[in-house]
Amino acid sequence: MKTPTYDLEERTATFGEAVIEFCLALPNSAVNTPLINQLVRAATSVGANYCEADDAESKKDFRHKIGLCRKEARETKYWLRMIAKAVTTKKTAARLLWAEAKELHLIFVAIVRTTDRNLRAAEAASSSDISH
Fold first, then answer.
1. Going residue by residue through the chain (132 aa), what tens digit of pLDDT does each one get?
2. Would you put residue 28 in left (φ > 0), alpha (ψ -120 to 50) or beta?
3. How many domains does the chain have?
């Protein structure tokens, strides 16, 4: 059986688009407008930083940019929580987006951990080569 292919670039782009559509449906108010701006910035930054990571110039650069993806996904969860409080009629839609932001956050946490482990292993191998 063939394993399905997961396109994280497409998934993060689709997520950003869904957040944009969600925000366009929100009413503007003195409270909502700054929350909407922050949410759109954070949610669309996840995909933008993933594209940057995909084209990283080194493993350390990749690690840095994936770390930004992780942080932006987490921040997106926060802003969705605030929107759900500010616009209670959109709580269900916000929760669905929050669940996807959580999954993306967990994916990036795993990538960061694996990358960190690989970088440490490479550094250890490099330092043992020098000492011999």
1. 555 567 999 999 999 999 999 999 999 999 999 999 999 999 999 999 999 999 999 999 999 999 999 999 999 999 999 999 999 999 999 999 999 999 999 999 999 999 999 988 988 887 765 555
2. beta
3. 1
pTM: 0.88
Q: How far apart are CA 38 and CA 106, in angstroms?
A: 21
For the domain that residue 79 is a member of, what is the CATH number?
A: 1.20.1440.60
CB within 8 A of 81, min separation 6: which ones? Answer: 94, 98
Q: What are the C-alpha distances in Å from 45 to residues 17, 95, 113, 127, 131?
A: 11, 19, 21, 36, 42
